[in-house]
Amino acid sequence: MNAPTAPRIASLVPSLTELVVVLGLCEHLVARTGFCVHPAEAVKTIPKVGGTKDVNLAKLRKLAPTHVLVNVDENRLETVQALRAWPAAERPEIVVTHPLAPDDNLVLIDQMVAAFGMVAGVAERAQACRQELVQELALTQPAPHAPQNVLYLIWREPWMSVARDTYISRMLARVNWHTLPDAAGGDHGAARYPVLHGEEPWLADVQQVLLSSEPYAFGEQHVGLARALCPQADVRIVDGELISWYGPRAAAGLRYLRQLAA
Q1: Is residue 1 part of a domain?
Q2: CA angle at residue 186 from 185 to 192, to 5 degrees?
Q3: Residue 5 has what pLDDT?
Q4: How many structural domains are present in the chain?
Q5: CATH code at 230?
Q6: What is the CA radius of gyration of the chain?
Q7: DSSP, residue by residue, 145-156
């Protein structure tokens, strides 16, 4: 019986690139996006194939991946369709991910084990990640924290927030912080990240404005602008990677949120 072929992994999602490395699969990583920057030392020599939304498919094809990791929110459907149209001999296995809540990281870990568990050490590292996450999920519950209406801003010009059914919003809900607007955005698409015009009546109900450090690099110079949106609210800058990245950052993100809410 032939031994399984060693995987050649292309990750088109920053969180998944980090997870691949944490699981001990760095030597199998043959491609990443320009936004896949963690862990910096581990990924610096891995070839870049564009961004999450504008993948250089010709360059990716030359790197001959056996597996391509994608995410419903972060990558374009057209990219996945193009990969599926490659000739059968070159067509990679496409691992589609879509975590919508911190608990979904358990499913994500299982997906990685299903795809790469044949590589030595992966199953053991995955189990360690799972155990840490289960512990942090148990420790991070809404009950000990006072409810807060929060506006979580990810962009400006225009201002953009997050819908209630996004991963970010559900992370914040673990400490009893409820994002406004109180609306769902659906499984995918622009409605998941609503645009604000600054005249919405519900802005008066916001108790806390959270300026994410990414994807827009909010800084102290933006605090006054955000305060003008919600004059009665507290405004602070938060670590967007810890709150919005899934995979190995989820456990640390839950610890971070408990500290913020204390």
Answers
A1: no
A2: 35
A3: 81
A4: 2
A5: 3.40.50.1980
A6: 19
A7: S--EEEEEE-BT
For the record, the structure tokens of 178 come out as: 């409820």
Distance CA 218, CA 154 (A): 8
Instruction: Please say whether the beta carbons of 204 and 232 come within 8 A.
Output: yes
Q: What is the mean pLDDT of residues 57-68?
A: 98
76-100 in b/e form (b: 16+ CB < 10 A) is eeebbeebeeeeeeeebebbebbbb
Tokens of 97: 């991910």
Give the whole-angstrom CA distance, residue 163 versus residue 171: 12
**Quick check: 75 and 52 in contact, CB under 8 A?**
yes
Same domain for 121 and 171: no
Check if the beta carbon of residue 222 is closer than 8 Å to that of residue 216: no
Helices (H), 117-221: 122-139, 167-173
Angle between helices 104-116 and 14-22 (to 10 degrees): 60
Residue 2 lies in a domain: no
d(CA 109, CA 19): 9
> What is the pTM (predicted TM-score) of this model?
0.93
Spatial contact of 50 and 79, defined as CB atoms under 8 Å apart: no
DSSP lists the bridge partners of residue 65 as: none
Same domain, 186 and 78: no
Q: Give the pairing of strands 195-196 and 159-160.
A: antiparallel
What digits encode the pLDDT tens for the residues 180-197? 999 999 887 889 999 999
Contact yes or no for 125/23 (Cβ under 8 A): yes
Per-chain mean pLDDT for the chain: 96
Give which of 226, 245, 205, 234 is closest to 160, Cα–Cα.
226
